[in-house]
Amino acid sequence: MAATLFVNLPVEDLDRSKAFFTALSFDFFGATEDMASVIISERTQVMLLKKPLFSSFIANDIADPAKSTQVMLALGLEDRAQVDGLVDKALAAGATPIGEARDEGGRYQRAFRDLDGHHWEALCLVRPTD
């Protein structure tokens, strides 16, 4: 069974978040005044929801990303250049870096927090050289 994944994230300022993901070269599927759908791939979208709308779908409080991490969103990319390119764009658009680049165990990865504090990882599998 092929499924489409919709990751829903609460955001403080939707226009600011849309500008951030546009700066990372992502396209949008659609938007309303309180949500926007970022296209990650053919079968994956990140739904940016203003906090009041996000709250209407949940029973618990919205986690404060400044105090805890609920999820790490990892984007698998093709090579180091794509990893570095995406993270460099994110940092230029106002993201905060998380730690240093990791180059171990057959993978290369870098991490950042978006404008609302959500944890993102960009990684690629490193092909061994002969």
UniProtKB/TrEMBL annotation:
<dbReference type="InterPro" id="IPR053863">
    <property type="entry name" value="Glyoxy/Ble-like_N"/>
</dbReference>
<dbReference type="InterPro" id="IPR037523">
    <property type="entry name" value="VOC_core"/>
</dbReference>
<dbReference type="Pfam" id="PF22677">
    <property type="entry name" value="Ble-like_N"/>
</dbReference>
<feature type="domain" description="VOC">
    <location>
        <begin position="3"/>
        <end position="125"/>
    </location>
</feature>
<protein>
    <submittedName>
        <fullName>VOC family protein</fullName>
    </submittedName>
</protein>
<dbReference type="InterPro" id="IPR029068">
    <property type="entry name" value="Glyas_Bleomycin-R_OHBP_Dase"/>
</dbReference>
